[in-house]
Design goal:
Layout: E1 14-18, E2 24-30, H1 45-61, E3 66-69, H2 76-84, E4 91-97, H3 107-117, E5 123-131, H4 161-173, E6 177-182, H5 185-196, E7 206-209, H6 218-224, E8 227-230, H7 233-240, H8 244-249, H9 251-254, H10 260-265, E9 270-272, H11 286-293
Parallel strand pairs: 3-4, 4-5, 5-6, 6-7, 7-8, 8-9
Antiparallel strand pairs: 1-2
Helix pairs in contact: 4-5
Length: 294
């Protein structure tokens, strides 16, 4: 349907798993998966609007009053319409893209969207989202040492350090904070390095996920004033998958998976979320998972 073959040039940050003849199998990894929409049509807009209404209802049933989400720019007018009709029941802090991608992004576009679509107390802007690596379960999280179950692999970094630092600096200069997806210990270190290249403690930059950390980087996070945004519900997913973290990292490094107590004791500010739709949109699971990981 998407007409992607062995000669197709994929978007930056996308890796295709290929068969013996070099043809894509239909499975793709990476931080740029939205770029695949360049090869296939987007879902019907009416269907997406209906899904948003269902999502608002689900959030209300779960007792949620606000979310932080990289809402696509083509859906922002609909959120503004809902607000203006007094039908928006959930506050949105909208994240833009740190760099420009297939569907826009970057500082200039985010500021323009804020001027047009921001609604006091309901639709706000101020954060740009970027990515450093992938996910441990796919062995695409960037690690300082090789994977325990694949000694030849250390994951993949999706950002050149100098370009990442420049993008962070540009965002800071516009008064925007940065949230970087980083799951492996090498990915988390790369995110900290980018933040410390242009330290702005007042903006409260964020590392998203931080599944595996090197102990030496915990005081660096505290010194930088970086928020670590974690999703303890991933621990339940790990157990359901048969202990994938232990298989990927080995028993010794598993002691540094989501070390919430060490982070809190070091003075690092923690933020908790769901990463919906990968995890359920439920707050009541947090205390049990936090207790388990502490």
């Amino acid at each position: 349907r998407a007409r992607i073959d062995g000669e197709t040039r994929l978007a930056p940050g996308v890796t295709a798993l290929r068969d013996g003849s070099g043809e894509p199998t239909g499975c793709f990894l990476g931080r740029g998966l939205l770029g695949l929409f360049l090869f296939a049509p987007l879902p019907d807009l009416a269907a997406m609007k209906a899904a948003i209404r269902r999502g608002l209802g689900e959030a209300a049933r779960c007792g949620l009053t606000s979310v932080q989400d990289p809402v696509p720019s083509f859906l922002l007018p609909f959120l503004a319409e809902l607000h203006d009709a007094d039908e928006l029941t959930l506050r949105f802090h909208v994240w833009g893209g740190l760099t420009r991608g297939p569907f826009g992004g970057g500082v200039a576009e985010t500021l323009a969207l804020a001027r047009e679509h921001a609604r006091a107390d309901w639709i706000s802007f101020g954060t740009l989202k970027g990515g450093v690596d992938g996910m441990p379960s796919l062995r695409s999280a960037a690690l300082l040492e090789p994977y325990a179950d694949d000694p030849g692999a250390r994951g993949a970094s999706s950002s050149d350090p100098s370009r990442l630092a420049a993008a962070v600096r540009e965002a800071h200069s516009a008064g925007l904070r940065v949230a970087l997806h980083a799951t492996g210990d090498a990915g988390v270190r790369a995110a900290i390095d980018a933040f410390l290249a242009d330290p702005r403690p007042g903006l409260r930059d964020r590392v998203e996920h931080a599944f595996l950390l090197d102990a030496a980087d915990i005081p660096r996070l505290a010194a930088a004033g970086t928020i670590v945004s974690v999703q303890p519900s991933f621990l339940a997913r790990d157990l359901a998958q048969g202990g994938v973290y232990e298989r990927r990292f080995g028993a010794e490094r598993c002691a540094h998976v989501l070390p919430l107590r060490l982070l809190a004791d070091a003075g690092v500010t923690l933020a908790f979320g769901t990463d919906f739709s990968l995890n359920a949109l439920r707050r009541d699971a947090f205390p049990r998972h936090v207790e388990t990981s502490s």
